[in-house]
Design brief:
It is a single chain. The chain folds into three domains: about 30 residues; about 150 residues, no CATH class; about 50 residues, no CATH class. With about 240 residues, the chain is mainly alpha-helical. About 15% of the residues are buried.
Amino acid sequence: MYCKECGTENQDDCLRCSKCNAYLKSSNSPLTGGNRTKIISFFAFLILPFAWFGGSALIILIAIFALYIMKKDQSFTPIINAKKYMKAYLIFIALSITVISSIAYYDINDTITNYQKYNQEKQYKSDVYSWDYEEHNPKVEMQTGMVAIGGLIATPFVVGFFMFIFNSLFFRPLEEHKNWIIKNGIFSDEKNEKSGSTNIVGRDNLSSYSVADEMLKWNDLLEKELISKEEFEKAKNKLMNGEKV
């Protein structure tokens, strides 16, 4: 696929030109069934961890609020900002897990060391968690320590996987059809036609916008010598180009 702006050849699945970053496809078209399914799947994916421990509650609120503001302001900027907030939130979660896992690992490691020391001296009293000597099991602590280490290793992969899901199922489908979604919504297949108003020499609140009707009105003004020939030609050129006067 070639870019209309700079002529650079790009892959067919690219959304933007690799050279000038211009959009390769029109974003003013309805979403396909596949893209709508992706968006629904994204929210379904968020509901699963929310049902477990509520970790995705904030992400769901961010996504819904961004969609609302996008429709209200007629701008795609809230979705772009939502992506930034999502990254910041995930980084915060990752750092929190890293800190907690590190503290847990070193705490458990100290517990095992103390246990071994007291066991050698046969004077074991209590460990960090105040377990009795008879009930104390170092294997349990070792397993818990492995869980902490696993948390440290898995955290960046989990964050990366979640961002992949966010981009693939939510951000990319919206970006591909952003102009359509802003005006017509996600699940609409028809344009939301709104009647516009055009001001001509102080005449406000005209009904539906029609090039033929406007040309007749401007011609009527010209015949009555209320406007000059030059003004009429300028208005005519704008109307023929689909612009409002």
